[in-house]
Amino acid sequence: MENIVELLKSQNKTISTMESCTGGGIANAITNVERASDVIKFSAVTYSNEFKIKMGVNEDIINMYSVYSMDTAHEMSKRIAEYAMANIGVGVTGKLNRVDKNNEFGQDNIVYLSIYDRDFDIYYDKVIEVNKNSRSENKEMVIDIFKKLLADILRDSK
Question: What pTM was computed for the model?
Answer without folding.
Answer: 0.93
